[in-house]
Design the sequence.
Protein backbone atom coordinates (compact mmCIF):
# COMPACT_ATOMS: atom_id res chain seq x y z
CA UNK A 1 0.00 0.00 0.00
CA UNK A 2 2.72 2.49 0.89
CA UNK A 3 6.47 2.76 1.25
CA UNK A 4 8.67 4.97 3.38
CA UNK A 5 12.27 5.52 2.30
CA UNK A 6 11.97 2.54 -0.04
CA UNK A 7 10.81 0.18 2.73
CA UNK A 8 7.46 -1.57 2.46
CA UNK A 9 5.82 -2.69 5.69
CA UNK A 10 3.57 -5.74 6.10
CA UNK A 11 0.75 -3.79 7.66
CA UNK A 12 -2.99 -4.01 7.14
CA UNK A 13 -4.63 -0.79 6.00
CA UNK A 14 -8.19 -0.77 7.37
CA UNK A 15 -11.04 0.66 5.29
CA UNK A 16 -10.52 4.42 5.31
CA UNK A 17 -6.99 4.00 6.65
CA UNK A 18 -5.40 6.22 4.03
CA UNK A 19 -6.78 9.71 3.65
CA UNK A 20 -5.39 12.20 1.20
CA UNK A 21 -5.92 15.92 1.30
CA UNK A 22 -4.90 18.84 -0.83
CA UNK A 23 -4.03 22.44 -0.11
CA UNK A 24 -4.04 25.10 -2.81
CA UNK A 25 -1.63 27.84 -1.74
CA UNK A 26 -1.56 31.46 -2.83
CA UNK A 27 1.41 33.80 -2.82
CA UNK A 28 1.52 36.87 -0.60
CA UNK A 29 0.25 38.87 -3.61
CA UNK A 30 -3.25 37.42 -3.21
CA UNK A 31 -5.65 40.06 -1.92
CA UNK A 32 -9.14 41.49 -1.98
CA UNK A 33 -9.23 44.43 -4.40
CA UNK A 34 -10.88 47.79 -3.67
CA UNK A 35 -13.90 46.80 -5.79
CA UNK A 36 -14.41 43.69 -3.62
CA UNK A 37 -13.14 41.26 -6.22
CA UNK A 38 -10.64 38.64 -5.14
CA UNK A 39 -7.27 38.63 -6.90
CA UNK A 40 -5.43 35.33 -6.57
CA UNK A 41 -1.83 34.62 -7.34
CA UNK A 42 -1.89 30.82 -7.00
CA UNK A 43 1.39 29.17 -6.09
CA UNK A 44 0.24 25.57 -6.54
CA UNK A 45 -1.16 22.47 -4.85
CA UNK A 46 0.28 20.26 -2.13
CA UNK A 47 -0.94 16.67 -1.58
CA UNK A 48 -0.78 15.43 2.00
CA UNK A 49 -1.78 12.16 3.69
CA UNK A 50 -3.06 10.77 6.97
CA UNK A 51 -2.50 7.04 7.46
CA UNK A 52 -3.81 4.50 9.98
CA UNK A 53 -2.37 0.99 10.04
CA UNK A 54 -2.98 -2.29 11.82
CA UNK A 55 0.46 -3.65 12.61
CA UNK A 56 -0.60 -7.10 13.84
CA UNK A 57 1.38 -8.75 11.00
CA UNK A 58 4.56 -7.09 12.30
CA UNK A 59 6.75 -8.54 15.01
CA UNK A 60 7.14 -6.25 18.04
CA UNK A 61 10.62 -5.39 16.76
CA UNK A 62 9.33 -4.48 13.29
CA UNK A 63 6.53 -2.40 14.79
CA UNK A 64 9.00 -0.57 17.03
CA UNK A 65 11.28 0.06 14.02
CA UNK A 66 8.36 1.57 12.06
CA UNK A 67 7.41 3.76 15.03
CA UNK A 68 11.02 4.90 15.43
CA UNK A 69 11.26 5.72 11.71
CA UNK A 70 8.06 7.77 11.75
CA UNK A 71 8.95 9.61 14.96
CA UNK A 72 12.59 10.29 14.04
CA UNK A 73 13.64 13.95 14.08
CA UNK A 74 14.43 13.73 10.37
CA UNK A 75 13.91 16.56 7.93
CA UNK A 76 12.26 14.50 5.17
CA UNK A 77 11.36 10.99 4.05
CA UNK A 78 10.52 9.61 0.61
CA UNK A 79 6.92 8.39 0.56
CA UNK A 80 5.17 6.24 -2.02
CA UNK A 81 1.43 6.55 -1.63
CA UNK A 82 -1.59 5.57 -3.71
CA UNK A 83 -2.83 8.46 -5.82
CA UNK A 84 -5.77 8.11 -8.19
CA UNK A 85 -4.98 5.04 -10.27
CA UNK A 86 -1.22 5.42 -9.83
CA UNK A 87 1.37 5.99 -7.13
CA UNK A 88 2.60 9.38 -5.93
CA UNK A 89 6.26 9.47 -4.92
CA UNK A 90 7.22 12.58 -2.96
CA UNK A 91 9.46 14.00 -0.28
CA UNK A 92 7.60 14.86 2.89
CA UNK A 93 7.75 14.99 6.64
CA UNK A 94 5.78 13.42 9.46
CA UNK A 95 4.08 16.04 11.62
CA UNK A 96 2.51 13.81 14.26
CA UNK A 97 1.49 10.27 15.07
CA UNK A 98 -0.05 8.14 17.78
CA UNK A 99 -0.82 4.59 18.82
CA UNK A 100 -2.36 2.79 21.78
CA UNK A 101 -0.78 0.50 24.35
CA UNK A 102 -2.73 -2.77 24.46
CA UNK A 103 -0.81 -4.67 27.15
CA UNK A 104 1.92 -7.28 27.45
CA UNK A 105 2.00 -10.57 25.56
CA UNK A 106 4.80 -13.06 26.08
CA UNK A 107 6.79 -10.51 28.05
CA UNK A 108 6.63 -7.88 25.29
CA UNK A 109 4.72 -4.62 25.16
CA UNK A 110 2.07 -4.53 22.43
CA UNK A 111 0.78 -1.47 20.61
CA UNK A 112 -1.93 -0.96 18.00
CA UNK A 113 -3.80 1.71 16.07
CA UNK A 114 -0.73 3.45 14.71
CA UNK A 115 -1.66 6.58 12.77
CA UNK A 116 0.44 9.42 11.40
CA UNK A 117 0.19 12.56 9.29
CA UNK A 118 2.56 13.56 6.53
CA UNK A 119 3.00 16.84 4.70
CA UNK A 120 4.57 17.24 1.27
CA UNK A 121 7.83 19.15 1.04
CA UNK A 122 7.15 20.56 -2.42
CA UNK A 123 4.22 21.49 -4.60
CA UNK A 124 2.78 18.59 -6.57
CA UNK A 125 1.02 20.79 -9.14
CA UNK A 126 1.75 24.20 -10.53
CA UNK A 127 -0.73 26.55 -12.20
CA UNK A 128 -1.12 26.05 -15.93
Sequence:
Amino acid sequence: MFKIDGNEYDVIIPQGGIERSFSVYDTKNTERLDNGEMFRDVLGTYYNYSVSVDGKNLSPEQYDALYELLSAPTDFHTFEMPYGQTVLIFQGYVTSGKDTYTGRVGGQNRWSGLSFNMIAKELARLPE
